[in-house]
Amino acid sequence: MSTLRELKGRIGSVASTEKITSAMKMISSAKMHKAEQALRRLVPFRSQIEGVMAHLMAAEAEYSSPLIEIREVKSVALVVFGTDDGLCGAYNINIFKDVLKRINECREKYGSGLRIVLYPVGKKMIKAITKIAGAGIEVKVVDGINTRSNLEEIGAFTEVLKTAFLSGDVDCVDIAYMHFHSVSRQRIQIDRLLPVSHEAISGGKHTDNPNSPCIFEPDANAIFNSVLPLYIASTMQDICTENNASEAAARVMAMQSANDNAQKLLGELQLEYNKLRQQGITTELLDILGGQVER
Predict the structure, then answer these.
(1) Average of pLDDT values for 217-237?
(2) Closest CA to 79 of 151, 154, 150, 148
(3) Domain ranges across the chain
């Protein structure tokens, strides 16, 4: 009977785990849908800014900005988005592996003496990134930014990155994050935030009519320098939202896998419990029948 009690206890524990993982899956799914809606709301604003920037850069007008200045790369900043919480499978591990690969690629491209500054975002990523500090790798943790940061906090973090670039502390700023495709598919992506390139604004596409009759007021350069910071801010906001959606999707899949495993284990334990219970009943019946025969 002690074995039956032990199995019953394990069945109750696994059943509780199944309920917890199912609830966590529902919560993560709700967060993912919320992030998806936020991504859709960003599309009109971002598209309008990209349209204005594309017209400006395609027009026969002179424009200049320190934010588009391309210079010799001696120092690279890499912002790495991870998660603050666990239970999302190999999400952070996959990003960390790709960051290590990117570091090696940068050193091959720009030389072994390259200075690399890492800006980790998320408690899990901070813990992983701080372990590789040293040997030309510097880790900077910015207070007030995490995976749940609001628009103002994201804007403040963007200003920190812009200041580092404009002051010459770093020569380019890249961002590593998980690009959201669907619930079952997220892809690691590394984009260049600074300096801003024409290809990044136009998505690699050129306007069909660069000589379209556009009148710029007050002038093209003034508009360019007014819209460019908005473009950078919208890019950073889009990346943060993509990361949130990907994190929630990864957690949905992890909880689904855990729930499936719990159901499978629950079925196995229930079958074993029924077998032992049936065996106990059969033994008792045989004992009763054996006692009647002896009489």
Answers:
(1) 87
(2) 154
(3) 29-252
List the catalytic residue out of 88, 172, 214, 240: 88
The percent of residues in the chain predicted with pLDDT above 90, rounded, is: 40
> Alpha-carbon distance 283 to 287, whole Å?
6
Question: Helix, strand or coil for residue 76?
Answer: strand
| CA–CA separation, 192 and 182 (whole Å) | 23
What pLDDT shows up at residue 178? 93
- Rg of the chain over all Cα atoms, to the nearest angstrom: 28
Residues 6+ apart with CB under 8 A from 137: 103, 116, 118
Answer yes or no: are the C-beta atoms of 118 and 159 closer than 8 Å. no
Determine how β-strand 75-81 pairs with β-strand 185-194: unpaired
Is the pLDDT higher at 81 or at 197? Answer: 81
Amino acid making up residue 112: S
CATH of domain 29-252: 3.40.1380.10
Q: What distance in Å separates the CA atoms of residue 144 and residue 163, rounded to the nearest whole number?
A: 17
Return d(Cα 254, Cα 90) in angstroms, integer: 9
Give the pair of three-digit tokens for residue 38: 């936020």
Catalytic-residue membership of 88: yes
Element (DSSP H or E) covering residue 185: strand 185-194
* Residue labelled with tokens 């570091």: 103
- Give tens-digit pLDDT for 153-211: 999 999 999 999 999 999 999 999 999 988 888 899 999 999 988 777 765 444 454 45
Overall residue count recorded for the chain in this entry:
295
CA end-to-end span of the chain: 28
Residue that the structure tokens 């580092």 belong to: 164
- The β-bridge partners of 179 are 187
pLDDT tens digits for range 101-157: 999 999 999 998 999 999 999 999 999 999 999 888 999 999 989 988 998 999 999
